[in-house]
Amino acid sequence: MLDIGISKLMLVAGIALVVIGPERLPKVARMAGTLLGRAQRYVADVKAEVNRSMELDELNKVRREFETAARDVGQSVSSSLDSATGQINAALSGPGSTGTDDDGAPTYEPYEWDSSPAVPTYVHPRKKWRVKRGAIPQWYKQREGVRRHVQSGAARVARFRPPRRSV
């Protein structure tokens, strides 16, 4: 790294004061500060992008591992289910595969399981909001000042306008 101490900074500041001049030195220092800030923000953005890409790669790796594990579990479950279904079908079919066996007892056909789950359907709750609203007695609505009819703004103003006095 750069080995810059206080003495070297003072030397650079003195040379800048002589070369640039005291009038333009504050503008140059401000410009150098803004450029340094931009460079630091750019470096921070690049670091953040690299970190995000590394995390994304790690997440993709974990996702792939999880998918393969889930696929393996699914295959093992389906294979064990198939073998159990085959054993049950073989036990049910017995020595004679159709009709009756040697003793005259009926044999059973292998049962095909329906693996598709029943999909629930949406049932509307059918709320009776009109009935509930109409259940409030008229005398209560009138006492509490609940509006029972739609009325325009002009009609409402005309309704509550004080009567005119004739002189």
UniProtKB/TrEMBL annotation:
What biological-process terms (Gene Ontology) are attached?
A: protein transport by the Tat complex
Key words of the record = Cell inner membrane, Cell membrane, Membrane, Protein transport, Translocation, Transmembrane, Transmembrane helix, Transport
Region annotation (Disordered) ranges: 73-112
* Compartments where located: Cell membrane; Membrane
Q: What InterPro entries is this protein classified in? A: TatA/B/E, TatB
A Gene Ontology MF term for this entry? protein transmembrane transporter activity
State any GO CC term.
Answer: TAT protein transport complex
Q: Which HAMAP family match?
A: TatB (MF_00237)
Question: What quaternary arrangement does the UniProt entry report?
Answer: The Tat system comprises two distinct complexes: a TatABC complex, containing multiple copies of TatA, TatB and TatC subunits, and a separate TatA complex, containing only TatA subunits. Substrates initially bind to the TatABC complex, which probably triggers association of the separate TatA complex to form the active translocon.
Summarize the protein's role.
Answer: Part of the twin-arginine translocation (Tat) system that transports large folded proteins containing a characteristic twin-arginine motif in their signal peptide across membranes. Together with TatC, TatB is part of a receptor directly interacting with Tat signal peptides. TatB may form an oligomeric binding site that transiently accommodates folded Tat precursor proteins before their translocation.
Q: What protein name applies here?
A: Sec-independent protein translocase protein TatB
Protein's organism:
Sphaerotilus natans subsp. natans DSM 6575
**What gene does the UniProt entry assign to this protein?**
tatB
